[in-house]
Amino acid sequence: MAEKLTGKRFAILATNGFEQSELEEPRKAIEAAGGRAEVVSLHQGQIRGWLHTDWGNSVPVDVTIEQARADDYDGLVLPGGVINPDKLRMDPHAVDFVRSFVQSGKPIAAICHGLWTLINAGGVRGRKLTSWPSLQTDLENAGAHWLDQQVVVDQGLITSRKPDDLPAFNRKMIEEFSEGMHARRHNLRAPAAQ
């Protein structure tokens, strides 16, 4: 597994209030597979995670959203937590960044509430996916087909429901992020947002 992502670079878009395990575990999986994972956020310095019901650890920000370019990355990770994606979906730079991945057909891995930002970026219409259950109506209203499954993969979009799903989510994320699986896909672009 250590060679699958060698030479590849991935963005993890997050801000204060990200669910700690949903950032830390995918980052570890990417790095264990030989890839480089960079935290992209709204400001420089550090951002603080949310651990179940209280504040958790801080992580350093590698690149600010105003400096980040989707062209520099091979894929995107959108961790959940309620506070994190709610802030991100209100930031035009963050939404544009996510939209660039959607439009280019690059793989996106989103878990829990992380799909909120994907809705605002026009990336869910016509897609099969899953999320934290409270997002089901939001996603269906945005044109997605919601499934209550541990992990759902639809043409390079990898989604899961919650921290308990991280082992399955990380396995599928690495598969989709590796050139072998993702390069064989046809029609990677998501349907156009309306």
What does this structure look like?
With 194 residues, this protein is of the alpha/beta class. The chain has a single domain, classed as Class I glutamine amidotransferase (GATase) domain (Rossmann fold), CATH 3.40.50.880. Helices cover 31% and strands 25% of the residues. The protein has seven helices and twelve strands. The strands form three sheets. Strands 6-3-1-7-8-12-11 form a seven-stranded mixed beta sheet, with helices on both faces. A three-stranded mixed beta sheet has the order 2-4-5. A hairpin with a 2-residue loop joins strand 4 and strand 5. Helix 1 crosses helix 6. The longest helix has 13 residues. The radius of gyration is 15 Å and the shape is globular. The C terminus is likely disordered.
Keywords:
194 residues, globular, single chain
Structure, briefly:
Helix content is 31%, strand content 25%. The strands form 3 sheets. Strands 6-3-1-7-8-12-11 form a 7-stranded mixed beta sheet, with helices on both faces. A 3-stranded mixed beta sheet has the order 2-4-5. It has helices spanning 20-32, 83-88, 92-104, 115-120, 136-141, 166-177, 179-182, and strands at residues 9-13, 18-19, 36-41, 46-51, 54-60, 63-64, 75-78, 108-111, 128-129, 145-146, 151-154, 157-160.
**Beta-strand proportion:** 15-25%
Query: Could you list the spans in which at least 5 consecutive residues all have pLDDT below 50?
Result: 180-194
As a percent range, the share of helical residues equals: 25-40%
Biggest sheet overview = 7 strands, mixed
- Which value, in Å, is the CA radius of gyration? 15 Å
Question: So how many helices?
Answer: 7
Question: What would the average pLDDT be, to the nearest integer?
Answer: 92
Overall tally of structural domains: 1
The level 1 CATH classification is Alpha Beta
CATH topology: Rossmann fold
Helix-strand pattern? EEHEEEEEHHEHEHEEEHH
Number of strands: 12
Side by side, the strands of the main sheet go 6-3-1-7-8-12-11
Shape: globular
Q: For this structure, what is the CATH homologous superfamily?
A: Class I glutamine amidotransferase (GATase) domain
Structural class: alpha/beta
Distance between the termini: 39 Å
Query: At CATH's second level, what is the architecture?
Result: 3-Layer(aba) Sandwich
